Amino acid sequence: MADLTVTELNTGDNDGTDMTASGTAAASGGDEFVNDGRTILRITSVASGTPTVTITAQKTSITLPGVGTFAPANKAVTLAAGNVTKQYHEIGPFPPAIFNDGDGRCQVTYSSETDLTVEPVRVKGE
């Protein structure tokens, strides 16, 4: 898996920064990124097909007070075909108790990585 660098986005900065132009080509073996629960995954697609992006749930069972025990599911999103026009997608944020592995990272896989660019973005708080 390729290690993605998380971009910091400060909520106090309203300078019109275009975040859509950056990112890294999706890796054929999948990607991973550090997750603190305030990170989303931005995906740019010009794929002619409809690839599925999956963020793997790392916990098989979790108990929440007042809710009970349940089995978390992977977060799988099928993207719309981009063809010539770029399609932008945001997935997340990802609760660390469900999606983080032992190293504090989210694992991402793709049904097809062709023509996908990915960028994890962390929204910084005040």
Characterize the structure shown.
The chain is mainly β and 126 residues long. The protein has one domain. The protein is 3% helix and 42% strand. The chain has one helix and twelve strands. It has one helix at 96-99, and strands at 2-3, 7-10, 24-25, 31-34, 39-45, 52-55, 62-64, 68-70, 75-78, 87-91, 105-110, 116-124. The strands form three sheets. A five-stranded mixed β-sheet has the order 1-4-11-6-9, with no helix packed on it. Strand 7 and strand 8 (68-70) form a beta hairpin. The longest helix is centred in the last third of the chain and has 4 residues, at 96-99. The radius of gyration is 15 Å and the shape is globular. The N and C termini lie far apart (32 Å). The mean pLDDT is 86.
List the helices and strands and how they pair.
Elements: E1 2-3, E2 7-10, E3 24-25, E4 31-34, E5 39-45, E6 52-55, E7 62-64, E8 68-70, E9 75-78, E10 87-91, H1 96-99, E11 105-110, E12 116-124
Parallel strand pairs: 1-4, 2-12
Antiparallel strand pairs: 3-12, 4-11, 5-10, 5-12, 6-9, 6-11, 7-8
